[in-house]
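Meet our chain:
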Amino acid sequence: MSPCEILTSAREEEKAGALPLLLDDYAITSNGFLPEEPPLKRLPHPYYSPWETLVECLPTAIAEQTLRQQVDGLPILSTDHLAREQEWRRAYVVLGFLTHGYIWGGDTAAEILPPSITRPLLAVSHHLGIPPVAAYASLNLWNFTSASPANDLSDLDALQALHTFTGTPDESWFYMVSVAMESQGAYIIPVMLTALHTLSTSPPSRISSSSLPTATKALTEMTTCIHKLGNLLDRMDEHCSPQVFYHRIRPFLAGSKNMVAAGLPRGVFYDEGDGRGEWRQLRGGSNGQSSLIQFLDVVLGVEHAAEGNASPDSDSKTNGHDYGRVAGKFPVSFHQEVRGYMPEPHRRFLEDVAARWPGGMRKAVGEVLMAVGGDEKEERFSNEQRALREAFRMATKSLAEFRNKHLQIVARYIVIPSRQLNWSQGVNLATASSRLRATSSAMGRDAMSDGGAELTGTGGTALLPFLKQSRNETFRAGGFHVQ
C-alpha cells in the first residue's frame, strides 16, 4: 500500500471514529503538520500593505542596510483586521522575517526591537501561542508555495519559499527540504496512532497474536518512512551551498538566547513604546522545533535527558516566559522545552500522545514480550513476537541513523565552514563561531571536542554535544549499546 493510500485509509478510519485521537482537533491535516491549504502569499486587507511592501523587498533592504531605517519608519499597525487563522499565520511569518532581518541585518546586532514590530508581533504570537521570534513554523510550515499540479508537498523540486532573508535559491532550498520532509512523513502519524492503540486496548497477556502483525507492519512502515525522510535530507547540497548557508543564511536564523558572543549579551529588548517593554532571550528557528521528528520520538518511546543537552544554558525560563515548561517537571529537556515554539495545537498533540501512551512503542513492545513468562527470554517468543521486537529495533535504529545524517550535515554546513577564515567585520553567529574556532585552535585545543569551547546552534544549544546525545539516546531506546 502506498503512503497516499495509507493516509486515505487512515482518514476514513478517523471519520468513522476508529482512530484513538481526532487529528482535526490538533490542526493536523492530510499534509501532516503542514496546513491543508497553501499559505497566503499576501494579507488581503490593504491596511497591512506597509508590512507586505517591506517584506517583498527584504533581501534588497538587508543588502543595502536600509531595513532598520525602513522598519523604524513603519506605522504601528494593530491586528484588528486579521480574520482567518491563515491571516494570523501570514502575519506571524511576515513579522518574524522583519524581526530577524532587523536584529541581524547590520554590522552588529540590534538589541532593541522597535514598537512598529514589537506590538503587533506580541499580539500575533499571543494569538497563536508561539514566542515572538522567527520559529520553525514561520520559516518552514507557513512559508511555502508549490507548483505541483497534484499539490504534492513532498515534491521538493516543486516547492519554493515565499520569503527569504538573502534572496538566494540556497535559502529557499534549505527551508523547502524541511517542508518536503514534513509532507513525506504525514502518513505515518495515523498509522502509528493505530498501532499504539492496537497494543494498548487489552492487557499485554491478552493481546491476541493476530493483533501483533498490525503493530509490526506499522513499525516496518515507519522504518521505510524514516528512510524516505533521510533521502530528502541527503538532497540538501543539490541547491544549498555550505558556504552560502554558513556565512549568509545561518546568521539570520539565530535567536537571542545564548548569543553573547554574537552581540546580544542581554537578549533583545522588545520595545512596546510609551516606556513599556522588556528584555527577552528566545531560541531561534531550528529543526528541533519540528513536531514530526518529535512525534517519531514520542511514539517510539525515545527519552531525552534534561541534563547535558541544553548547554550552555539549560534554563528555559526567560524573564517570566515559560515557553515549553512542562508542569511539575523541572528541569525539562531541550526537546520538551522547544515544544513551546511549536503551534499550540501541535504541541498539545504531542503532549496528549505522550500522556495516553507513556513510553510509546518501547514500553508497549516490552510489555508484550514480558507477558510471555515474566521475562524477555527469546526462546519463549512466538514468531509474531520476534517480528514485532525486530521491527521496533529497526525503527529506532533508522531514526538514530537519520540523526547521524543530521550530524553529517552539520559537519559539512557548520563545522567545516567555521574552520575557514571569515573576513567579515560584522558580528553575528557566523563570525562569532569562526572566531571561537580560531581562538580555540590558537590555544591548542579543538573547538569541536568535548573539552573545548563549543559551537552554538541557532536554537542556543551547544550544537554537537546536543546532536550526539540525541542520537545516542535514540540508539539506546532500541536496545543498542552506545559508548
